[in-house]
Predict the 3D structure of the following.
Amino acid sequence: MKMIIDVLTVILPFFYLVTVIAYGYAFIPKKPAAKKFKTPLLIATIVVHLLYIILRTIYFVHPPIISVFEILSLLAFSIAASYRIIEIRTGIKNTGFLILLLSLIFQTISSLFIQDLYEVNPILRNNLLGIHVLSALIGYSAFTISAVYGLMYLLQYHNLKTNTLGIFFDNLPNLERLEHLTHNAITVGFLLLTIAIIIGVAWLPHAFEEYSFLDPKLLGTLLVWVMYGVGLFMIKRGKRTGKQIMKLAISGFLVSIFSLTIINLYFSSFHNFF
Amino acid sequence: MLYLLGINHRTADLATREKLWLSDEEIRTLLPAFHRQFFEECFIVSTCNRTELYGVPLSKHSFASDTELFDAVERQMIAVKNAGEEVSSEHFYRLKDMHAAKHLMKVATGLDSMVLGDVQILNQLRQHYDLAAELKTSGAILNKLLQTAFHAGKRTKSETEISKGAVSVSYAAVDLAAKIFFDLGEKTALLIGAGETGELTARHLVSRGIGKLLITNRTLEKAETLAAELRAAAIPFNRFNEHLHNVDMVISSVNSTGFVLSKAELDAVFDNRKRSPLLIVDIGVPRNIDPEVNSIENVFLHDMDTLSRIVQQSLRRRHECIPEVNEIILDELTEFHRWHKSHAVAPILDEVRAVYESIRSEELIQHIHKFRPDDKELVEHVTKRIIHRLMQLPASELRNGIDDTPEQKEMKLHMVRKLFGLNGESHSKEKE
């Protein structure tokens, strides 16, 4: 089993690479063959990735949520799977190139640096941790997707304002659809992050002696939550539309990434477990 | 053998094409007449851009050459339409066999359309094919040919971009709206000026399901007339500003020396719009809308230059798709060619099968009593299977000889006839 896990660690980025290339070919030169194969390729990648997660969980006797690189792999999977759900629900199949590019980047980093963690802190075997991490991860995936849609919106907005015709003008969905997708993704992300924070706040003091509300990781997450919360409140009040929502989505994503990676790597925190 | 006689936008101007345009009623009269006189199978398609006749000639006809047959059909077409003065031979094209089949593929895929990629012709082909089928003038060859053409057209539409993108200014304006709004059915458009291009754009918007259309014009009666036709609402020209906070799209095409809408006027109403997107299409020359309005957030101003660029880009993209469409045509033609070759040998294979079958029946009658009653069914089955397997090799050899020269093909058929003593063989012996 270890050998299969090692092989999958190496080939998973290539699965994402081939899928991204197929989506790219379907997006830019609009090759019919790429259009035909991109979705089956994505499904195959998601299935292989799921298998990888299951095998790691069985072999190392813990879900891959302990190190930042395990989490990046889960994030890559979560983004790809969420994107596939969006494809099914909205019928928009030409935005995968930009979204799956993030999965490719996350999985590549994960595959390069992921370690075999046999020893796991017993605290991390708690069931609440699973829900905490899962809701946070899907929430961050939703924020990632909202940021990509936000970026697409700004690109299309710019094209329409400046009369710039081209690949992006032709292929990107309309502004209202992009705004709708971004808003939905932010809402889902915010709700899931709220759940993750509630569980975290309730469970962490019992699990960690050195627990502190001033922990940089916690403050980073709280900042993300406040940003999106205020943004959603303003949208609800009708005070923010279009471009402003997109700017919120992109800046929120950047802060999320900062909170998820930089703080984990460079700040000392009780929240680091590896 | 497949013949095509036609006239289209490349060979004749509109006035000439009009002379040869055939209504459904005229086709109902003409097609059976051609069927009786010249063709075993025939089919006519007649639109504003082309009138084409496809036919499989009668196996026994009195014409000494193809040219004579083409001449006779052409004369009759001209005579029926009484178009002798306007239409002459130089307006027609004459194609045969795979050239004719290829032409039909080009028509069905929009390669031969006046506007490249316009695949409306596919529906027209279907309607005319239905007519030929109803009149029973189409047969195995034309049925297969047209099904192949429909398939090529369908593939072209789904696999290539040749029919995508706006190719007129009025369509380009509607395409722009589709880049901003998700559901035009929930949107309101305001047409300022009931000029020709504005009216066309409004018509396209209505056909794309715009939720509400307001029309204003300096002459209110003109706005009211168009509004009645398009089920829209007419509003006085001097009060259209009062509706700006409710509209999502403005199309302006009035003759005006100054701007009919300034940035200050739009700024004044924009706060009431909750800053939702507003598309303004200025198709007036000189321009009707102050270009400064584009600096307002969520206002998208486009003029004739943008629309023209969209049209040019669409046309360029359509041209880039031609090689892809040609590949589809080649695929489909190869398939048709394969079918046609196998179709040509079908009668002789039927004859060979009949010879085997008669031998099988005779032998069964003679020997079936030697088997137990329970085995009779099995014997039937086994003997039929033997015939089926015996037929496989010659059938495959004859059908697959696509690249055979006509001489090689004829030689193979001759051999088969000779070996099995078929009627064709005795017939040719009689001729000798």
About this structure: The beta strands of chain B are 3-8, 39-46, 50-57, 93-96, 188-192, 212-217, 233-236, 249-252, 278-282, 299-303. Chain B touches chain A through 26 residues (CB under 8 Å). Confidence is low (pLDDT under 50) at residues 425-432 of chain B. The CA atoms of residues 162 and 317 of chain B lie 7 Å apart.
